Amino acid sequence: MKINVAYPATGSQKCFEIDDDLKLRHFYEKRMAQETEADSLGDEWKGYVVRITGGNDKQGFPMKQGVLTNGRARLLLKKGSGCYRPRRKGERKRKSVRGCIVDSNLSVLNLVVIKKGEQEIPGLTDKTQPRRLGPKRASKIRKLFNLSKEDDVRQYVIKRALPLKEGQPAKKQRYKAPKIQRLITPMVLQRKRHRLALKKRRREKNREEESAYAKILAQRVKEAKERKNERRRSSSMRRSAARLSQSSETKN
Fold it and tell me: What is the 3-state secondary structure (H, E, C) of the chain?
């Protein structure tokens, strides 16, 4: 079985070929995202703690987190579920994946070093892999160079030198720098003030329309009450006139 070990502190990784099942038996029946000691791999791994991040079986099927078996399972996968890349929008597909439990049928096991031991592992912990790209967000650039808010972040962007073409002089060396994200500029502040002004204007407009609607509603209610009272008065006058006419007829 191959063991692919990554060491995030230096950005390096190395693949080890291990044929002794006694060394690998310590990882059997353990799940993905589980941390364990790596002492069984050899004396140079004494004190190392690793995390299991995945693997592939001998036919190339990847391990999937959450599938509690050491065999294969056919799952209906969609975008974002892992182990599947949809070709069309909304597409789903039933694919075979391996469970998250480690067993002897794996061909590659992926590990990440969580805690370093006493000895150095050649090719893994004794060398540093330089980062190809620097930070892009303004706050992370400030944190990297320990800058204050008064310092200009644009002067500290890590640029990448582009390779020269054949026959091109060294004076025409070109660099590529990332666009700084979340950078506070006068234009950003102006747009923020504009958004706040629009929000304030909408709030005042809604308040005025609400007060105007309340006035119209009160006027309509008042007019309805007046019409209702007028109808009552007219009906009472008709009833009283009818009584008077009946009383006069009875006297005659």
Answer: CEEEEEECCCCEEEEEECCCHHHHHHHCCCECCCEEECHHHCHHHCCCEEEEEEEEECCCCEECCCCCCCCEEEEEECCCCCCCCCCCCCCCEEEEEECCECCCCEEEEEEEEEECCCCCCCCCCCCCCCCCCCCCEHHHHHHHHCCCCCCCHHHHCCCEECCCCCCCCHHHCCEECCCCECCCCHHHHHHHHHHHHHHHHHHHHHHHHHHHHHHHHHHHHHHHHHHHHHHHHHHHHHHHHHHHHHHHHHHC
Determine contact, residues 91/139, Cβ cutoff 8 Å: no
Question: pLDDT tens digits for 204-248?
Answer: 999 999 999 999 999 999 999 999 999 888 888 888 888 888 877
Distance of alpha carbon 78 from the chain centroid: 18
Amino acid at site 220: R
Token digits for 172?
């025409």
Burial class of residue 55 in the structure, from the number of CB atoms within 10 Å of its CB (0-12 exposed, 13-18 middle, 19+ buried): buried
pLDDT tens for residues 69-127? 999 999 999 999 989 999 999 999 999 999 999 999 999 999 999 999 889 999 898 88
